[in-house]
């Protein structure tokens, strides 16, 4: 019964958050069970473009290391802030949310190649946290009950804690930088004099992922209009 309740609760999580979280957990489980090796997952441009192992462009975002405190720490932040974004500023805009993932993933991959970074899931987490924090500047956040501060300080606290856990500071800095680029292009620049939106979600994503918008000029047929129940 407990598993059924947990499964029911998980199915109520928004689609993108549910899919990404499940993919991360399943990837880690496969590594723990020795069905996969981290060497099959990490980003390697030579293997991607010369050996056509294109799955590495995705799997390097799904592996957060072996089971342990660091893994659960990252999963907590992924699940919480990905969900808060999807249910908040991206509510009803699944295509825009997926496009943010694609934009961030592409930019991280290019910059990660320059920095010789092999796994970028933690950078993606930092990006999600950064975008949420900039869109929620007045929210006060409790960091494991030890510190309380306003949301814009959260990415930096997360980076400091990640360094204490032994992670490279470059990974979190990359995520924060990409998150800032997205935030600037999406939220800041369009509101500047002469500015405009540069990140336009492709129409095929909207067609595929978003519910069709109602036509404001549509007039329902008489039999479709609400009225008294006819006997």
Strand order of the largest sheet: 1-2
Count of helices?
10
Largest sheet, described in full?
2 strands, antiparallel
Gyration radius, rounded: 21 Å
* Average pLDDT figure: 88
Name the helix and strand elements from N-terminus to C-terminus, one letter apiece.
Answer: HHHHHHHEEHHH
In percent terms, what proportion of residues is strand?
under 5%
Estimated helix fraction: 55-70%
The unreliable regions are: none
Q: What is the terminal-to-terminal distance?
A: 45 Å
Class by alpha and beta content: mainly alpha
Count of distinct strands: 2
Estimate the global geometry from the Cα principal axes.
globular
Description:
By secondary structure, the chain is mainly alpha-helical. The protein has ten helices and two strands; from the N terminus they run H-H-H-H-H-H-H-E-E-H-H-H. The chain has helices spanning 2-11, 15-32, 45-49, 56-59, 69-87, 94-114, 121-135, 154-164, 169-188, 203-209, and strands at 140-143, 147-150. It has a two-stranded antiparallel ribbon with strand order 1-2. A hairpin with a 3-residue loop joins strand 1 and strand 2 (147-150). Helix 6 (94-114) packs across helix 9 (169-188). The longest helix is centred in the middle third of the chain and has 21 residues, at 94-114. The N and C termini lie far apart (45 Å). The mean pLDDT is 88. It is found in: Endoplasmic reticulum membrane. It comes from Rangifer tarandus platyrhynchus. Belongs to the derlin family. It holds the Pfam family DER1. InterPro entries: DER1, Rhomboid-like_sf.
């Amino acid at each position: 019964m407990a598993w059924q309740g947990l499964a029911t609760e998980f199915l109520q999580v928004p689609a993108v958050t549910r899919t990404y979280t499940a993919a991360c957990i399943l990837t880690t489980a496969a590594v723990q069970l020795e069905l996969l090796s981290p060497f099959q997952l990490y980003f390697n441009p030579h293997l991607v473009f010369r050996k056509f192992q294109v799955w590495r462009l995705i799997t390097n975002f799904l592996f957060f290391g072996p089971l342990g405190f660091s893994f659960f720490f990252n999963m907590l932040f992924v699940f919480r802030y990905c969900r808060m974004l999807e249910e908040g500023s991206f509510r009803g805009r699944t295509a825009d949310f997926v496009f943010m993932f694609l934009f961030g993933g592409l930019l991280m991959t290019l910059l990660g190649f320059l920095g010789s970074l092999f796994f970028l899931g933690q950078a993606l987490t930092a990006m999600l946290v950064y975008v949420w924090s900039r869109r929620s500047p007045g929210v006060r956040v409790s960091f494991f009950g030890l510190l309380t501060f306003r949301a814009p300080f959260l990415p930096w606290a997360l980076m400091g804690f990640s360094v204490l856990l032994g992670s490279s500071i470059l990974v979190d800095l990359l995520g924060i930088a990409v998150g800032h680029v997205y935030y600037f292009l999406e939220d800041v620049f369009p509101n500047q004099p002469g500015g405009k939106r540069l990140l336009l979600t492709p129409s095929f994503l909207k067609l595929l992922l978003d519910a069709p918008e109602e036509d404001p000029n549509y007039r329902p047929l008489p039999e479709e209009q609400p009225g008294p129940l006819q006997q």
